[in-house]
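Sodium/proline symporter structure dump, as promised
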Amino acid sequence: MMVEIFAIYLGVVFLIGIVAGRFSSTSEEGYFLSDRDLGPVATALSAGASDSSGWIFIGAAGFAYSTGISTMWMLPGFAIGYAINYLVVGPRLRRYTARKGAISIPDYLEERFNDNSNILRVLSSVIIVCFFSAYVASQLTAAGKAFDVLLSVNYQVGVLIAVAFTTFYTLFGGFKGVVWTDVAQGFIMMIVLVVFPLYLIFFQLGGWSPFINQVGQSDPKLLSAMGSESGAAVFGFVIGLLAQGLGEPGQPHILQRFMGSKSDKSMEGATVIAMIWLVIVMTGSNLLGLIGRVLLPNLSNTEYVFPMLVSDYMIPIAAGIVLAAIFSAIMSTTDSQMILVSQTVSHDLFNEVFSADISQERMVWIGRIVVLGIGALGAVVAMQEARAVYWFVLYAWAGLGASFGPVLIISLYWEGVTKWGAIVSLVSGTVTTIIWAEIPALSALIYELVPAAAVSITSLVLVSHLTKAPESAAEELAIASSDNPKNNTNNESSPTLDD
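structure tokens r here:
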């Protein structure tokens, strides 16, 4: 019955993705931004689902299994990151890109700094493609692990099933198909992360107090806010967990939802929904890790904790639903990253840099070919199962957050930012992330996002002071302002299926 339920779920998601594509125009803006018509629910749940990924079920639950309640330091960090994204970055980025006709982050950077050299476009495109390739591979790794435990399907076969299914509906549904499936999958994820932990605590472990007591008996350090760390290591541990959320403003696949949101009003409603989503998924995932420590105390691979709990403690019908939730998390991120890499290669590089004189319809088909390519590349990397999902995601997250976050936030508010400041910031954030992550002594000290972001911000400010900002900088900032009289993009009276 579990397999049947899961098959029904796959069929429904596939249908949603294909049907959704029929409601978008055939233009690039339609295929890559859903014609900028996303309402608050679509904006928030699509951003949340694509943000959470297989990491929330596989990686974060496994990390909580190992470290205990100290994992919850991530929650306030992500709350700050969400607030920055939805209140500081999102509204201004939405207005600016809508008024300038920009459909990607490289578009924004080139427009904002009047860069006719294509340096910013090419550099930002390369960063996106490189880190998103690793990101896609991490999601397919999570899928392979879930199939292995729950369906006894060979890991490599599970990877192939995941990439084939996700690639196909992304090909024809475009961004609207991705958003609609993300919303459906987001609801499934929330329901499972509320119901499943409560079921295990009250019906398998005897209630909240017995559960906490059993966790403490398993290992008292699991109930310590500092985990197993002591001394100076506590600082690095806590700051590293808090800092994970600060990578939010630099994630292009999340920012793309803001660019596709139809109005300031939609962004306001999305903010409330997103915060509720965050608390549910972070708390549920971490509870499942602790529950697993009690019910499955001897796991050799901690990232198998959630699939193993489903396999051992759920009836087949419920297990099918939970498996659907895991796959929802994985697909909602994978499809978002595929469509964004597709946009980067076809629009930002092929069309804008190489100035290919072809129709928008044909450009969309080039984007679809790129979707196939990134899916194949991600599958090849995932087949190696070289890294844990948790660390694979954090590596890509840090690289994108440190590279794009500082440039986006500061350039939306400070007219003194220069093209060369932005270039050096992008390069320094990327390089610092890679170097820090690859040197064990440094990576053990603190999460690479922290030093990489610090270097990126510092270099941005210093170089900008040493170079000249565009003469139109003040005008460019005014375009993003809420009181700009030229705003004709708020379609408040035009409800859509994404409301």
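The CA atoms of residues 292 and 305 lie 6 Å apart.
lmk if u need the other ones
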